[in-house]
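User: Please fill in residues for this 186-position structure.
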């Protein structure tokens, strides 16, 4: 009986690790940086990863149990990786918790802003939040293509159930292929 318990926990860790890896791959797609303007910096990569994690967490929040458990495991996995990355960058043991706390606060603030804009169908608010957080404070108009990508990604994730997310991985559109549905084609 106890061996089965360990096997299930191990399978759960592997499943979440695979989900985290697929999200990380989506956040490293070149089109995010070349076509959508995400800065190719440590901060830009954090923002791209955060954005994709937030989109998946948003979808998990819409699904029935055990999706909430998967969401918590995913958050734990992401922040354990961030902790390890900070240590690899040479941040000392005393500084890591402060940085993780700051990263956590910014992560959840972004999740709130992006989620509220997506829920309201407010492209302007989404573009403003993305411009402020992901695109280094550029004007909101410059974030239109990134906002279109985020909306397309959220729609693609909305079509996936929990089994699909865990078995196939989250489906994200190609960044360069995100349509501009704003009607503004300058």
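Assistant: Residues filled in for all 186 positions:
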């Amino acid at each position: 009986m106890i061996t089965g318990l360990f096997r299930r926990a191990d399978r759960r860790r592997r499943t979440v690790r695979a989900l985290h890896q697929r999200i990380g791959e989506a956040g490293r797609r070149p089109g995010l940086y070349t076509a959508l303007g995400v800065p190719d910096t440590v901060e830009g990569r954090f923002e791209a990863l955060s954005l994709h994690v937030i989109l998946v967490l948003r979808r998990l929040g819409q699904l029935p149990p055990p999706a909430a458990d998967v969401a918590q495991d995913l958050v734990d996995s992401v922040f354990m990786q961030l902790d390890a990355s900070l240590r690899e960058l040479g941040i000392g043991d005393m500084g890591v918790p402060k940085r993780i706390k700051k990263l956590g606060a910014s992560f959840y603030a972004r999740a709130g802003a992006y989620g509220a804009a997506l829920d309201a169908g407010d492209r302007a608010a989404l573009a403003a939040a993305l411009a402020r957080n992901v695109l280094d404070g550029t004007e909101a108009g410059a974030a239109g293509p990134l906002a279109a990508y985020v909306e397309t990604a959220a729609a693609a994730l909305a079509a996936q159930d929990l089994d699909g997310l865990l078995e196939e991985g989250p489906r994200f559109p190609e960044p360069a292929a995100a349509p501009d549905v704003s009607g503004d084609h300058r």
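For context: The CA atoms of residues 18 and 86 lie 22 Å apart.
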